[in-house]
Amino acid sequence: MNRSNKYLKTFAITYLIFLYAPALLLPIFSFNSSQIIAFPLSGFTTGWFKALLYQETLHEALKNSLIVAASSSIFATILGILASRAASRYYFPGKQFSLTFILAPLVLPEIIVGVSLLIVLIQLGLPLNLWSVVLGHTLLIMPFSILIMNSAFNNLDISLEEASLDLGETPLGTFRRIILPLVYPGIMASLLLGFTLSLDEFIIAFFLTGTETTLPVYIWSLFRFPKQLPATMALGTILIFVSLILLSLGEYFRRRAAKTQTSVL
Amino acid sequence: MGKLVQVKNVFKSFGDVHAVNGVSLDIQEGQFYSLLGPSGCGKTTLLRLIAGFEKPTSGQVFIDNISMDGIEPNLRPTNMVFQNYAIFPHLNVEENVAYGLRNKREKRSDQNKLVDEALELVGLSGLNKRSANALSGGQKQRVALARALILKPKVLLLDEPLSALDKKLREQMQSELRHLQRAVGITFILVTHDQYEALTMSDRVAVMFDGKVAQEASPRDLYELPNSQKVASFIGEMTFIKGEIIGENKNLQVQSEIFGKINIEKSRVFGQSSKKMVLGIRPEKIAIVPKTSRSKDLISGKIIDVSYFGETTNYKVSCGTTETLTISSQNSVGQLSYSVGEEIQLKADMNNIIAFSI
Prior knowledge:
The complex is a heterodimer of chains A (about 260) and B (about 350).
Chain A: H1 2-30, H2 47-52, H3 56-89, H4 95-102, H5 110-124, H6 130-154, H7 158-166, H8 171-200, H9 203-208, H10 215-222, H11 229-262
Helix pairs in contact in A: 1-11, 3-6, 3-8, 3-10, 6-8, 7-8, 8-11
Chain B: E1 3-14, E2 17-28, E3 32-36, H1 43-51, E4 58-63, E5 66-67, E6 78-81, H2 93-97, H3 108-121, H4 137-149, E7 155-159, H5 167-184, E8 187-192, H6 195-201, E9 204-209, E10 212-217, H7 219-224, H8 229-234, E11 239-248, E12 251-256, E13 260-265, E14 269-270, E15 276-281, E16 286-289, E17 299-308, E18 312-318, E19 324-330, E20 343-348, E21 354-357
Helix pairs in contact in B: 3-4
């Protein structure tokens, strides 16, 4: 027992090092004063972060990314709410089938999704712009939203809705006064996770973006200019921390969703 | 006092399952009415049909002479207390109780007054700001009651409201509910599977089996004059023995091994009268009499089983035939107790025998 515990511990630590060591290099080199990304470190500087303030194309890409992340997480969450609501309350033919297929983007390689979407958009004669990226990201995020919203709706006791109707509230009022407040933590979790996924997503954005690039695509384009590398590292550092904060917030809401719902009875 | 709720030949099927299979009921204004039956008998479905959560497959529900066809639950003059109470977990006691007032467009100050009155009515004064999750089962029950009663419904529907409470609290709530109903004068319709609950609380009881009403009567009639063996054995206990009709004038003359030749009033005969009948008698309508007694029509037998229940003792007695009688004896002052194997003499109250067709 003790012995296997020790192995397990070693495994867990090794795993965490593999997972996070590369990411740790980012903050280290983003504060390193040398342009060359190599050890030994030459000195401490916050210059690379300051340089970010003056790159207008970066600001443009950041703005694009925020628009895409906000829109696609909102769209995916709305679709997630509708799909989970339908799945938890109504019976219709092919329900199980459609629920399985709606989650397919989870397992499809992103590059396949990206290429297929590109072909479809071009065939339809639609222009490639930020909205085509929003479309792709909504598709990518939706399965996560559905999974999160599903658990929120499944835990919702149907008699609460009936009680609200019984007390004279309209179906719409019931949705606003009972259902929304109770699944609200799930909605926040879905929005935050969706936002994070979209903000970091590269492949689909790379295929579907027109002239307006998102942040990951912009970063990729920077690799052609070695001089920019430390600034890119600084940018990456910021992105990692923002993502971590968003994910923790999302997890906080997800757990709160689970908690408020289980204490209903 | 008029008919407040009328259920007219209502059917409700879920796929192949006929949950409610042709029910007609008239419920008088101001009554405490119970729908009693084993689980799966359709009583809850019937309640939900009255509330509007289910639509009848055929038939109609009238409340105050208005057809409820196509009227959504939120527009019906009914309110419901749910089995699990359905207290809104994100609202406090006050917000839960005031929930339905929002749609009545009452003034804020009036609302507060109504909430305080409702909480006082159910004995929860001062708990206005308590969070829903901090309430005990009994308190949730009271909040659910206050929340429904504050809207002054014509009918209050209660779906097994006491089944989740422990025995002591359940008995206390039974008497409180009864008092509450008398105080507010609102018609209550209670769904329950507990026959004692139905008998002690109600003005009238409808016993349901397999989606149909088997008998509708006052609690006393239901117990004293059950119209079928099924109702008789669902409500309390009854011993059944074989009998044979030997004559008929204004009464029915029935011959049976244990009771001999007896007369049974026509009002105590249920079902098609055929040659063979089943005679039923409640265990407490048979008394054990001292061996010295010289009274006629005594039945002698031998005790084969004794069950002790505290205030009563039940004896199973073999009467020399294949049939046995069950006797319930009050353990009151001076009452002797008997043990298995003892030979005893019994006196049955022949006026309390009921005859059922087979």
